Amino acid sequence: MSRIYLDYNATTPLRPEILEAMLPYLQEVYGNPSSIHLFGQEAKKGIEEAREKVAQFIHASSMEIIFTGGGTEANNLAIKGAVYASGEKKCHIITSSVEHQAVLMTCRHLERKGVRVTYLPVDRYGMVDPEEVRRSISGETILITVMHSNNEVGTIQPIEEIGKISRANGILFHSDAIQSAGKAPIDVHVLGVDLLSMSGHKIYGPKGVGALFLRSGLKIEPLIHGGHHEMNRRAGTENVAGIVGFGRAAELSSASLGEGQEPSCALRDYFWERVRERIDYTHLNGHPMKRLPNTLNLSFEFVRGESILIDLDLHGIAVSAGSACASGSLESSHVLAAMGIPASVAQGSLRFSLGRETTREEIDHTVKVLEEAVHRLRQMSPLYADVKKGGT
Amino acid sequence: MSGGVDSSLAACLLKEKGFEVIGVTMRIWKEGEGRDSAYGCCGVADVEDARHVAQQLGIPFYVFNLEEEFEKEVIQYFCREYGRGRTPNPCILCNERVKFGTLMKKAFELKADYLATGHYARLEFDDRSGRYFLKKGLDRRKDQSYVLFSLTQDQLGHILLPLGEYRKEEVREKAFQRGLRVHDKPESQEVCFIHEASYHSFLQERLKESVAPGPIIDKDGSVLGAHKGIPFYTVGQRRGLRLAKGKPLYVIGIDPEKKALIVGGEEEVYGDNFIANSVSWIVPQKVTSSLLAQVKIRYNHPGSEAVLFPKTGGEVEVRFKSAQKAITPGQAAVFYDGEVVLGGGWIKEVKKLQAQS
Question: Which of A78, A388, B321, B332 gives 20 to 30 Å between its CA and that of B92?
């Protein structure tokens, strides 16, 4: 059965060029980058070249890039690192209610340790209001963290405006750009961020590697001790092949962005058009314009997204919905809830995220299967029957 | 698939028979509150066991979040019944409303033809009546037909029970032969949603003010002592009464209005006559006539000969030929004709006994 992957926001396949770039570092270039001898130096070279590429990708300088074990670790390092470094007795953090769990759970953890956290509301598109950020600033605020774009609905936040506000108030500003990198251009100077998180496996690179941008001159407390790696900011023998892969991924992404990411956007919009034509009672979640070009989050009334998801899966089509809990069942989306979407509608939501390999044929086939699934499931829905009868 | 050996083997056997099998687990516990270690069922570790078996079999595997339904249909029922001085059987409600209710609907959404489980019971289609019959499992000690009595024809017609013909030892043996790591996993003994050592703290937490102390009285109404709350007691219980009398005393009835426990001697725990309500029939009966049956009044009860007198309003009066110990309001009464389940209902009141106060 041919398989269709429409879950690029969850992860991306490793590009062949990237695998190629990584291979020598899994085979003959096996030295420990911290070793003084030539074996180590060669490995170190690979890392530093990658660092330069990642820096260029976001218009930063090499020294400002800290490699981590992934995007989640980068988020943890940014937030906890900033809080611990501040040394303040009373700390206040401002964040949004639609952040990824890596940010939210880190904040909740810090709350239990006595840090005060403001979770800003969002509008119905999932957008944060910079004025709300300004209003929430207190004498104890040491960090503002707002994601660049939301992984579930794709809404792009007004980072530049928030950056200006943070700067004006002398507060550290972090942005989780894990989902945006590679889909929207990132320039840390334009954005006005002090910290920025990225992840390799979202840009066709390997899993298990990420990076944190830390503006030069700023200090954070490391989370992992045990060596002087990453300029004393993240100890541990580096995942050399992973980092090299990440660097190559950043390089390739820079090039693609330079060419414009129109293809993904046009295809995504085509997808939405076809769905709208063929399936009624559907809603698009997220900002109509200010949204990642590949992301389409839709609610289908009267059915559960989970049921459609599994039906699609059994047809070989991969999409996602909400987030998974520890046992692997679907939890309702905190993002849709924060956007004010009623639970009954939110339950019928699915996220489609396209990638560089997605074709028009795949979209056409998906729409066909989707239409059948939604239609069939609605036949089993008493609520739909009511509506059709003209009740409620 | 609960992660236990029964449902794991059931999945294997069906795959071997050529069915297209999809493994599903119901997550009925609150996120973060499931059992910590794999112990029969009901925690993340058990889901992992189920997932592992699914991977071994090469079948798709999904976990469904049924927390809300389970809370509403099973847990709330459980607490309500104890609050009313009755002793519930949550497994029966779970089977009827959640497992073969909500979960079965989800199975149909996935275009499945059947929902299969590892229950020890058998299903047969009776050509003469055109109905599905539920029968005891071959392994009488493990028979679980009791907890399936209230299923409708529509449900029964879409259920597969691959283990009904096997004994428990055979099941473990077959699981071992197939390399299932759960082959020697212990069975969960208690109610799946209570992880504390006893029900008491769970009920205390849930029922709050309804758990109030009250009098312990004898059947003449004389007060003999006090109790901590009627939800902590069940008919036939001797433990926890803390009464110093000449002979051992047992709970023989519960009066929820007066919040009173009625106690008596051992001989008073026995009864031979009760009314069951909400009776459902798998083998249809004429409401007018009486019939002979073996009746189980508890999951562990061996069943005993009785005469059933169907009444109107879905009620049946049951008269045992010999007295039975602790006929308990709230428990299910299931009627058998040999190995065939005729039907069953819920014990409403025990007729022989009357608390005078």
Answer: B321
Strand bridging mode A116-120 / A92-96: parallel
H-assigned helices in chain B: 5-16, 44-57, 67-70, 76-83, 90-93, 104-109, 153-156, 168-177, 199-207
Query: Chain A: nearest CA to B104, how far in angstroms?
Result: 13
Which residue in A376, A349, A378 sits closest to A283, CA to CA? A349
Phi, psi angle pair for A310, to nearest 5°: -70, -40
Pick from B269, B268, B252: nearest CA to B217: B252
Question: Number of A:B CB contacts under 8 A?
Answer: 45
Whether the complex's predicted ipTM is more than 0.90 is answered with no
3-state DSSP call for residue B320? strand
Candidate from A89-98, B241-250, B293-302 with smallest mean pLDDT: B241-250
What confidence tens digit (pLDDT) does each residue in B191-209 have? 888 877 678 888 888 888 7
Closest CA to A148 of A167, A174, A117: A174
Interacting residues of B208 by C-beta distance below 8 A, sequence separation 6+ = none
Number of Cβ within a 10 Å radius of residue A44: 18
Neighbours of B101 (CB within 10 A): 18
Find the helix or strand (DSSP H, E) in which A336 lies.
helix A334-338
* DSSP-assigned beta bridge partners for residue B305: B294
CA A150-A151-A154 angle, to 5 degrees, is 55
Nearest to A331 among B31, B62, B111 (CB): B31
Mean pLDDT of B63-83: 93
Q: Report the residue of B51, B109, B110 to disrupt the A interface, i.e. the one with the largest count of A CBs within 10 Å.
A: B109
Both tokens of residue A70? Answer: 């992934």
* Three-state SS at A174: strand
What's the whole-number mean pLDDT along residues A142-154?
A: 97
| Amino acid (one-letter) located at A258 | G
User: What whole-number distance in Å separates Cα of residue B295 and Cα of residue B302?
Assistant: 8
Return the axis-axis angle of helices A360-379 and A262-278, rounded to nearest 10°.
Answer: 30
Q: Residues B7, B117: contact at Cβ < 8 Å?
A: yes
Number of H helices, E strands in chain A: 15, 14
| Partner A contacted by B240 (CB < 8 A) | no
Report CB contact under 8 Å: A330, B65: yes
- CA dist A50 and A55 (Å) reads 9
The residue assigned the tokens 């928030």 is A162
The CA angle B36-B39-B43, to the nearest 5 degrees, is: 45
Q: Are A152 and A333 in contact (CB under 8 A)?
A: yes
Q: How far apart are CA B38 and CA B56, in angstroms?
A: 18
